[in-house]
Amino acid sequence: MHRCSHVFPDGRPCRALAPRPASVCRNHTPQAVADRDDRARRAAELKYGGEAPLTPAQLKTFWQNYHGIIRNADESDFDDILANLMAALEQGAVSDRSAGRLLRALVRRRRELAQQRMNEKLIRLAEQSESLRRQGFSGRGLYQELIPQVRELMGPSPKRSTC
Questions:
Q1: Most buried of 24, 72, 121, 139, CB within 10 angstroms?
Q2: Are 20 and 27 a contacting pair, CB within 8 Å?
Q3: Which pTM value belongs to this model?
Q4: Contact 23, 5 (CB under 8 A)
Q5: What residues contact 125, with CB distance under 8 A and at least 6 apart?
Q6: Is 17 domain-assigned?
Q7: What is the CA radius of gyration of the chain?
């Protein structure tokens, strides 16, 4: 008999003895792993009222799909995504932690879209400035032509306190 060749995720080797023709112990044969997963699934179904939680592989696929949806989302999709997320949270289909992660991803995407819009506006403003220079505007005349676009880009100015 020799030691099992299985290595745990943390890097430790299995210390159980394996029968001579096999390279793994009885706990790490493909059949034993499948039986263990099946027992865990059935136990989860009993615990969660007939619905088993997602397996790690299914969870990975779910996250990749959902993050792909968020990554490609436009601002018009945010309300639908948020409504679906809230419904899934109420039904218990997604945990609070998972919902928080998805919500943070959605907030990051909204910031990315806002930054993209700002960059596009800045590029248009630079192009317009160059066009005005070619038309002969310079100095104060150039800036007076660009002031409305700059104000639009910057948004409303904050109110100054009069203390």
A1: 24
A2: no
A3: 0.47
A4: yes
A5: 146, 149, 150, 153
A6: yes
A7: 29
C-alpha–C-alpha distance, residues 77 and 68, integer Å: 13
Q: How many residues does the chain have?
A: 163
Answer yes or no: are the C-beta atoms of 44 and 56 closer than 8 Å: no
Q: What is the pLDDT of residues 23-39, one digit of tens each?
A: 999 888 889 888 888 88
- For residues 6 and 24, is the Cβ–Cβ distance under 8 A? yes
- Helix, strand or coil, per DSSP, at residue 13: strand
From first CA to last CA, the distance across the chain in angstroms is 86
Q: How many structural domains is the chain composed of?
A: 2
User: For residues 131 and 113, what is the distance between their CA atoms, to the nearest angstrom?
Assistant: 27
Question: Beta partners for 17?
Answer: 3
- Cross-strand pairs, 13: 7
Q: What is the pLDDT of residues 67-117, one digit of tens each?
A: 777 777 777 778 888 887 787 777 777 778 878 888 888 888 888 888 888
Q: Which range of residues forms the domain containing residue 4?
A: 1-49
The DSSP element (H or E) to which 154 belongs, if any, is: helix 139-154
With respect to residue 9, please indicate whether it lies within any of the assigned structural domains: yes
**Where would I find the H helices in 27-95?**
30-47, 56-71, 78-91
